[in-house]
Amino acid sequence: MSPKLPHLMRPEESGFTLLEAIVALTLLGLALVPMLSFISESAGQLARVADTNERSLAVQSAVALLDPINPMETPQGEEIIGQDLIIRWSSNLVIPPNDGPQIGMGLPGFRVGFYDVRVSLLRNTNPWFEFDLRKAGYQKIDSSPLFGN
């Protein structure tokens, strides 16, 4: 008796039928659709998180840059950070500064007013986003006759 060779197998024993292959591919496709949808949605969320993180870093940089700026002396201006980020600001007086030294109130020897500062961030000279700050503006007053300095 001779051994049975694979190429001599009868047709009913020779692997998958075309119908079985189509059903298997259909089931595999149905299983992959939700998985691809999940991956696509995750990529979109990752892009939104990256954009939010980048904006947060830009706001922190702008606030740090504007911290030493006195809106009473420099009510508007522009600074360039890095190669592609421009910070512009403009200030509007909200509470006018005091007229002179006020004993027992505020900072003696300074005029102090409050300003709303509108900050615009531009990326590659194109507007990116804006935010608002409230800052105190100040000016040193000669208080020598009042305080004996």
Describe the overall structure.
- The chain is α+β, with helices and mostly antiparallel strands and 149 residues long.
- It has one domain (6-147).
- The protein is built from 2 helices and 4 strands.
- It has helices at 18-66, 144-147; strands spanning 76-81, 85-95, 110-123, 126-140.
- The chain is rod-shaped.
Q: Topology of this protein?
A:
Blueprint: H1 18-66, E1 76-81, E2 85-95, E3 110-123, E4 126-140, H2 144-147
Antiparallel strand pairs: 1-2, 2-3, 3-4
Give a quick summary of the entry:
This protein is an alpha+beta fold.
Strand order of the largest sheet: 1-2-3-4
Shape: rod-shaped
What would the average pLDDT be, to the nearest integer? 84
Order of helices and strands: HEEEEH
DSSP helical segment count:
2
Count of strand segments: 4
Structural class designation: alpha+beta
Any idea how many domains?
A: 1
For the CA atoms, what is the radius of gyration? 35 Å
* Biggest beta sheet summary: 4 strands, antiparallel
Helix content: 25-40%
Low-confidence stretches are: none
Question: End-to-end distance, in Å?
Answer: 124 Å
The share of residues in extended strands comes to 25-35%
